[in-house]
Amino acid sequence: MVDFPLVSNGFSTEALTQAQRDIAQVTPSLDEGIVDRLTKKNSKQRLSTRTRERYKEIVRDFNRFLEKNGLSISQESLTQYFDALVSQHRPATVNLHKSALLKCVKAQMGSNNVLLNIAIEKVFEMISVYKPDKSVSEAQCITENQVKAMVDGAPSEKTALIIRFLYKTGCRVSEMTNVRLNDCEPMNGYMRIRIVGKGNKERKTTIPVELFREIRQVYGGKTWLLESRSGRPLHRVNVGAQVKRAAERIGLLDFYPHLLRHSRATDLLINKEISLKAVSKFLGHTSVAITAEMYIHDEVDYHELFSKDLI
User: Fold this and answer.
1) pTM
2) Residue 177: inside a domain, yes or no?
3) What is the pLDDT of residues 70-80, one digit of tens each?
């Protein structure tokens, strides 16, 4: 029995009661295939292949939770599920699960029924939104000299070029691996590259023409700038493993590829003194506020603070 609370958004009590009865007739678990149907039904979702796979993992995880605890989809089971998630995962992960499950539950149960959608949305409104701390401290980042050491000590020339490209552009790994040769064009002695970022938003980035030529000579791709021997774009997991090995060679044991993006942004703001607005555009952020929240490293100097205390 699926037990969702009734709501009053201009609909009669009788209509809302019937909506609850309709919900109670559906299957007690989610259909993993709803993720594919969700994307086809509403092109505005624009889910990437990676996001679709992540949504399916979330659906499978939720279904396992229901089966293990002998539950069906309800306000109670959702609350229990998210309570368990909060104790095991970071806020960003919890919020991703909430967003994915809301879309999938609405697509499977609500379809085009406005009343059902209202009832479902009310349930998810009762689930707390967890705000992650997105700030990146300067101490977490690596220096330009450390990046150079990674490049010099990389296990292969191909890995060295990957590190240089990621740091020079501040790109995410998936943005780099999706660059096609026809996305690149010479401009004033540099190579201008079209990048497709989060939410399929486009921006332009630039690399020195010398770096572009080195990549072309070493990788020799026919379609992709960074192309595997099979003619496909490099896989982000393999790229991550290569970069991590290069970091481990210089003693950076907890390194992850995205740290190159964070380190580049911090270097531009603090050492190169590039304006916040320019860095925000460089990174492809939708607003300067996002960049400021992540990379403005104004922290309390406790020695200075306590030395001025009177008590």
Assistant:
1) 0.62
2) yes
3) 888 877 788 88
